[in-house]
Amino acid sequence: MSDLLAPAAAARPTRIGSRAAAGGLDTGGALWPTPPRFAAAHIVAVITAGLALDALLGWTGQHLATVWACAVWIWLYRAGGLPERRSLVLCLLIAGFGEIVLSLVWGVYDYQFGNLPLFVPPGHALLMTLGVLVARKLPTRSTVLTITALGGAYAAYAWFSDHDRFGTVLFLLFALCVAFGRDRRLYSVMFLLALAMELYGTALGNWVWRPLVPGLGLSAANPPFAAGAFYALLDLLVLGAVVGLARRATTQAATAAAFQRPSSRSSRQNP
Length: 271
Known about the structure:
Layout: H1 15-21, H2 39-79, H3 82-105, E1 109-111, H4 120-135, H5 140-160, H6 165-180, H7 184-204, E2 207-209, H8 228-269
Antiparallel strand pairs: 1-2
């Protein structure tokens, strides 16, 4: 994986780099232009069945879910191009760090064995990939407006009823991602996908959110309705890093090409 940080071999930018240079917002749509067959089905299967294994079979199920999630992650890594590989690795690393902070350090939620299951970081990368595949099939404007409007209305109810004030705070974080991020449609889709997975995982007992947020004293539902804000922020950071790496590679390749042109011209003039 050492090629992930290397500059591009040619001066022509990658697809995601060219879209970023053009100022496009939907950079997530540049990922996985030709995904492997049944990629979405594999991701849905490993998330739903993997969480069920973890809940029903204890440690054995958790190990099986880890092997399955890592196998699908590796399959996607081998099938993807450089931008896709970068997104998978960056998502795994950033999600792993975030999980350590939120669960093991801050203690906002707890996994059933008090640990950080090893299937969780690659699972975040798989869920982001699923979000990319789903988001490109939906219209941007109506998707964003519908989710933010409904979410905003529920955020007001959650705050004033003191049912889920942490969820309201998280919704504000989601709104910031939508307002200033690169891919509003992806963040909105991830908001729903994450909520569905959170409802499923908490119902099975894979993890539980604490009713009061440590250090803040805010009420929190199990799960907070806007837990997807963490996933939107994760995708924002991953896309920003992928685009930044693509731009840097394009700039370095163009600079190298510019230095090569005069030297090749002088060599032709002075045989």
